[in-house]
Amino acid sequence: MTEPLLEDLSRWREETPGCSERIHFNNAGAALMPRPVLDAVKAHLDLEARIGGYEAARAREEAIATFYHDVGSLVGGKAENIAFAGSATLAYSQALSSIPFQSGDVLLTTRNDYISNQIAFLSLRKRFGVEVVRAPDRPEGGVDVDALVRLLERRPRVVAVTHVPTNSGLVQPIAEIGRACREREILYLVDACQSLGQLPIDVSAIGCDFLSATGRKFLRGPRGTGFLYVSDRALKAGYEPLFIDMRGARWTGPDAYIHRQSAKRFEDWESAWCLVLGCAEAARYATAVSLAVISPRALRLASALREKLAALPRIRILDRGGELSAIVTLEVPGVEAAPFLAALEERGINGNISLKEYAILDFGEKQVEWALRLSPHYYNTVEEVEVVVAAIGEILGG
Ligand SMILES: Cc1ncc(COP(=O)(O)O)c(C=O)c1O
């Protein structure tokens, strides 16, 4: 494996307080925040405590504005295209709620879209009679793009695709799907919650109308942060969230309001500005390290982990598909999830368990009740991969 410059790796780790305590392979849950992110959050909280919450927001207005600019440039958009949200799900719901669904409309998605998105689609079906259509997978895993493109003949109201699912190491071909949507002028919503900060994201290359993501996962921002990218096309077309509030719109008369021109029309009035500032810092940190460095390193660590784990007896690696992410999933037939995770935690190793109900379609096909998810990031080390593999071998052998 090509290693980064030793001083880079040492700096990343020195700037990450959590590195000294645990082997953190739960970056797909919430990555360890680097020091500048932590400092930005704490400093603003302190300021709020000293001078008042509203006053602190006014005092830091310029710094808050950098959130929109720096998150926008991370995904290839402008500040005007970015709305802050308290989570990826909230960002996603705001986008979905802006689509004027009517009974019989088709919502085209995949078999690997995120659990909460699938629940939202079913809720749209229950309330508005939307038909939820899932494109089939290819035999080797991942959505069958040709089949999905054929389904576009049904003129779906929106195509909704999760870039990197939460529960498997898959990467979906979102740019290929985007090209097909653009050619047909079909609305396209992408969930980039697990890919932001892990893979380069370029909204122009993807051709999406909406893209939602969180700050806390591979971007290494604080919990309670997320954002929605809204394309110029969608803004011009007048999409606005169903429950637009006084942040997103001006009340212009007893029976009238006008929405803001920018994507801020998708925001709520109330936000935790300390977290917004922390998330802005995380975007700058990722840009400074560079996705060109972050991404190949995270993927290489994950693939080394996958290979070494696959060589252990009893372990079944569950990741399938043409392109794999920095998420490694496995099951051990006959072993219970909770004690397995607890044994890892006792050894100072962080991972996560996904249950079948989080991924009914995917886990149903793989015939598993649970999966252990391990998700290294660029600030992890080859040595940590080896320690984790040895620990799992020991737990299963003992
Ligand atoms: C692919 C994907 N989409 C969306 C979400 C939801 O993110 P949040 O918890 O910030 O709403 C997750 C969380 O794990 C996810 O993995």
Q: Determine the number of helices (DSSP H or I, runs of at least 4 residues).
A: 16
Rounded average pLDDT: 97
Tell me the strand percentage band: 5-15%
Q: What's the end-to-end separation, in Å?
A: 30 Å
Number of DSSP strands? 15
| Class from secondary-structure proportions | alpha/beta
The proportion of residues forming helix, as a percent range, comes to: 40-55%
**Largest sheet data:** 7 strands, mixed
Strand arrangement, major sheet: 2-8-7-6-5-3-4
Q: Could you explain the architecture of this structure?
A:
The protein is α/β, with parallel strands linked by helices. It has 16 helices and 15 strands. The chain has helices at residues 6-14, 27-30, 35-51, 53-59, 61-74, 88-97, 115-128, 145-151, 174-183, 203-206, 232-236, 273-289, 291-310, 337-346, 360-366, 382-397; strands spanning 23-24, 82-85, 106-109, 131-134, 158-162, 188-191, 210-214, 226-230, 249-253, 256-259, 316-317, 328-331, 349-350, 352-355, 370-374. The strands form 4 sheets. It has a 7-stranded mixed beta sheet with strand order 2-8-7-6-5-3-4, sandwiched between helices. α3 packs antiparallel against α12. The radius of gyration is 21 Å and the shape is globular. The chain binds pyridoxal-5'-phosphate (PLP). Pyridoxal-5'-phosphate (PLP) is lined by residues 87-89, 114, 116, 162, 165-166, 191, 193-194, 214, 226.
